[in-house]
Write a structure and sequence with these properties.
Blueprint: E1 9-11, E2 14-16, E3 19-20, E4 34-39, E5 52-53, E6 55-57, H1 62-69, E7 77-90, E8 94-95, E9 98-99, E10 103-113, H2 128-134, E11 161-167, H3 173-191, E12 199-205, E13 210-213, H4 221-229, H5 240-250, E14 264-271, H6 279-287, E15 290-297, H7 313-317, E16 326-329, H8 336-346, E17 362-369, H9 376-390, E18 401-407, E19 411-415, H10 423-431, H11 442-454, E20 462-469, H12 478-486, E21 489-496, H13 501-507, E22 516-519, H14 529-543
Parallel strand pairs: 3-4, 11-12, 11-14, 14-15, 15-16, 17-18, 17-20, 20-21, 21-22
Antiparallel strand pairs: 1-2, 4-7, 5-6, 6-10, 7-10, 8-9, 12-13, 18-19
Helix pairs in contact: 3-4, 3-8, 5-6, 9-14, 11-12
GO cellular component, one term: extracellular region
Function: Plays a role in the control of cell shape and motility in the trabecular meshwork.
Domain VWFA: 161-342, 363-532
Length: 544
C-alpha cells in the first residue's frame, strides 16, 4: 500500500481514502463541499492555472493551489479541499514555484489544507484482516456518540458592519502576525458573526492595503474564522492611513454586503505605530459615518517616540477622542482577557457617535424669498444654490430631510420634511418650485417655518434653517430669529443685492462671520455652496 493511503480520514464513522485526481483537476470539478484528494507527483512540471492567494477561485487547479500554498511538493500527496462562497478581488502572488493570477470576481472559491493523520482505531468496525494480524479478534468497544455542539446563533444585539484592519507589516513579523490572527478569530467568535448580527470583512495593512474578503463573503463565525486562518502574511510598511482611506472608499459598498441602517465600524490593529499620516483618512471616515476603533499593541516606548512621525496618532485616528474608541494591549501574548471587553465595545452601538454625520442626520429647511424684486430668472439661480447644497446630503427616510417654504407677505409650504423621503424626489420637488412674486415679510416667514416646518416632530436630526433674501423686510426679523434659535434651530442667512447686512446678522446664529453670506449679484450665489455645507458640518460636529 502506498504511504499516502496510510493516511485515513473520518467522515462520520466511515474510513475514507483520498480520491486520486490529476494535476489539472479544478475545484469546480469536485462533487463535495469538503473533500480529501490525492495529487500525483510532478505537478510542478505542468503549466497550471491558479487564481488567487490563500483563497482561490474554483476554476483553479487544486494541485496547483496546494503547491502554491506549500501543502505539497514535487512528490504530490493528500490535500483537504474546502469549497467556499464566491468573492471579488482574487490577488496574484508568487510562491513555491507557482505564479498565481489575479481575478476580479468568481462565483465560488476554495481553500486547501494539510490532511490530518488519524489512528486506525477510529472505528469499532476494523477489517477482519486487521484482527487476524493482531492475533485475535477484539471485542468491539461501544462508544457513546457525542452530541454535536449547538449551532452558534447571530448576536442580534450587535447589528454592525465591521472591517477588521490587520497589521501585516514588517514591524509585526510572522510570529506576532499569527498571534494577531488567533486573537481576531477569538474576537469573531465572541461577536457571534451572522445574520442579523455583526458582519465582518478583513483588510490587510502593509505597504499597499489589500482587501481579503468583504462583508458578504462569509456570514457565520465558523466561515470567517476559517477564512482568517488562510490569510497570508504580506510585510511592508505600516501604512495605516492608506489602509483606512482604502477601506472607506472601497469596502463599505452595497455591492459588497453593506446593510442599510447598520452602523459601520473600522477596527484598526497596529503593532507599534503607523508609518504614514492617519488624520486625513480619519476625517474622511468620520464624514462618511464610519466609527474608527484603534487597537494599539506594544505601543511605542518613550525612547521610541522620536521615531513616530505622528505621535498622537491614536487620538487623531479614532471617531472621537473620548477613550471609548481606543483599546490598548501590552503585547500579543496572553490576550484572552482582552477579547470580551473589546467585543463589548464594538457592540455598544448607542455610543457610536460617528454613525450620525452632518450628511445623514440633519433637517435642512430652506426659507426662500419669492418677492417681486427677485424675478423669475434670479429665482432659478436661488434654487440652483439650494439644489447644490442639498445634493451633498444623504436624504432618505432614515437619513437627512429637506423642506422648503417660499414667502412674500404670505407664506407657502412647498413641501415639508416628510413629503419626500428619497433624494431624487426631494431634489425634483425643490427644482420645480414655482415663483410666487409679492412683498417681503421675512419675520413672519421665520415664525411660520418654526411653527409649521420644525415644530412637528422632526426626529433626532439636527435642525438648520437657510434664509435667502434680496431686500429689506417690512417686519421685525430679530425677534423671530432669536425664537427659532431658542428652539435649537441653527440659522444661516444669504443676502443678495439690497438685503441689509444688519438684518442678515440679526437673523444668523453665532458666530455671525461664519453664518452670514452676501453677494451683490444673483450670479454670485454659487460660491456659497461649499462654505455653507462646511458650516453645517462644523456646527453639527460641535453640537455632538
Amino acid at each position: 500500500m502506498s504511504m499516502w493511503f496510510a493516511v485515513l480520514h473520518v467522515l462520520g464513522r466511515k474510513l475514507v481514502f483520498p480520491t486520486p485526481i490529476s494535476c489539472g483537476t479544478r475545484a469546480v470539478d469536485l462533487p463535495d463541499t469538503r473533500q480529501i484528494v490525492l495529487c500525483p507527483a510532478n505537478c510542478t512540471l505542468w503549466s497550471l492555472s491558479v487564481f488567487g492567494s490563500g483563497v482561490y477561485a474554483s476554476i483553479s487547479s487544486v494541485c496547483g493551489a496546494a503547491v502554491h500554498r506549500g501543502i505539497i511538493g514535487l512528490s504530490g500527496g493528500p490535500v483537504e479541499v474546502h469549497r467556499l462562497q464566491g468573492r471579488t478581488n482574487y490577488l496574484s502572488s508568487y510562491a513555491h514555484g507557482i505564479q498565481s493570477q489575479s481575478l476580479s470576481q468568481w462565483s465560488s472559491s476554495f481553500t486547501v489544507a494539510r490532511t490530518i493523520s488519524l489512528p486506525l482505531e477510529v472505528s469499532s468496525q476494523t477489517s477482519s484482516s486487521a484482527n487476524v494480524a493482531s492475533g485475535a479478534a477484539k471485542k468491539p468497544v461501544k462508544k457513546t456518540a457525542k452530541k454535536p455542539p449547538p449551532p452558534t446563533t447571530a448576536n442580534r444585539d450587535c447589528p454592525v458592519d465591521m472591517a477588521l484592519l490587520l497589521d501585516s507589516s514588517y514591524n509585526i513579523g510572522q510570529r506576532r502576525y499569527n498571534l494577531q490572527k488567533n486573537f481576531v478569530s477569538k474576537l469573531v467568535a465572541m461577536l457571534k458573526v451572522g445574520t442579523p448580527g455583526p458582519h465582518v470583512g478583513v483588510v490587510q495593512t502593509s505597504e499597499t492595503p489589500r482587501t481579503e474578503f468583504y462583508l458578504s463573503n462569509y456570514t457565520t463565525a465558523k466561515d470567517v474564522t476559517f477564512a482568517i486562518k488562510e490569510i497570508p502574511y504580506i510585510g511592508g510598511n505600516t501604512n495605516t492611513g492608506k489602509a483606512i482611506l482604502h477601506t472607506v472608499r472601497n469596502f463599505f459598498s452595497p455591492d459588497f454586503g453593506v446593510r442599510r441602517g447598520y452602523p459601520r465600524v473600522i477596527v484598526v490593529f497596529v503593532d507599534g505605530w503607523p508609518s504614514d499620516n492617519v488624520e486625513e483618512a480619519a476625517i474622511l471616515a468620520r464624514e462618511s459615518g464610519i466609527n474608527i476603533f484603534f487597537v494599539s499593541v506594544a505601543k511605542p516606548a518613550p525612547e521610541e517616540m522620536s521615531l513616530v512621525s505622528e505621535q498622537d496618532f491614536m487620538r487623531k485616528a479614532v471617531c472621537k477622542d473620548n477613550e471609548f474608541f481606543t483599546f490598548t494591549m501590552p503585547s500579543w501574548f496572553s490576550t484572552n482577557k482582552f477579547v470580551k471587553p473589546l467585543a463589548h465595545k464594538l457592540c455598544s452601538i448607542d455610543q457610536m457617535l460617528c454613525s450620525k454625520t452632518c450628511y445623514n442626520s440633519v433637517n435642512l429647511g430652506f426659507l426662500i424669498d419669492g418677492s417681486s424684486s427677485v424675478g423669475d430668472g434670479n429665482f432659478r439661480l436661488v434654487l440652483d444654490l439650494l439644489l447644490s447644497i442639498a445634493r451633498n446630503f444623504d436624504i432618505s427616510d432614515i437619513g437627512s430631510r429637506i423642506g422648503a417654504i417660499q414667502f412674500t407677505y404670505d407664506q407657502r409650504m412647498e413641501f415639508n420634511f416628510n413629503d419626500h423621503t428619497t433624494k431624487d424626489n426631494a431634489l425634483r420637488a425643490l427644482q420645480n418650485i414655482p415663483y410666487m412674486s409679492g412683498g417681503t415679510a421675512t419675520g413672519d416667514a421665520i415664525n411660520f417655518a418654526v411653527r409649521s416646518l420644525f415644530k412637528p416632530r422632526t426626529g433626532p436630526n439636527r435642525n438648520f434653517l437657510i434664509i435667502i433674501t434680496d431686500g429689506q423686510s417690512y417686519d421685525d426679523v430679530r425677534g423671530p430669529a432669536m425664537a427659532a434659535q431658542r428652539e435649537g434651530i441653527t440659522v444661516f442667512t444669504v443676502g443678495v443685492a439690497w438685503a441689509p447686512m444688519e438684518d442678515l446678522k440679526a437673523m444668523a446664529s453665532e458666530p455671525k462671520e461664519s453664518h452670514v453670506f452676501f453677494t451683490r449679484e444673483f450670479t454670485g450665489l454659487a460660491q456659497f455652496q461649499q462654505p455653507i455645507v462646511r458650516g453645517i458640518c462644523r456646527d453639527f460636529t460641535e453640537f455632538n
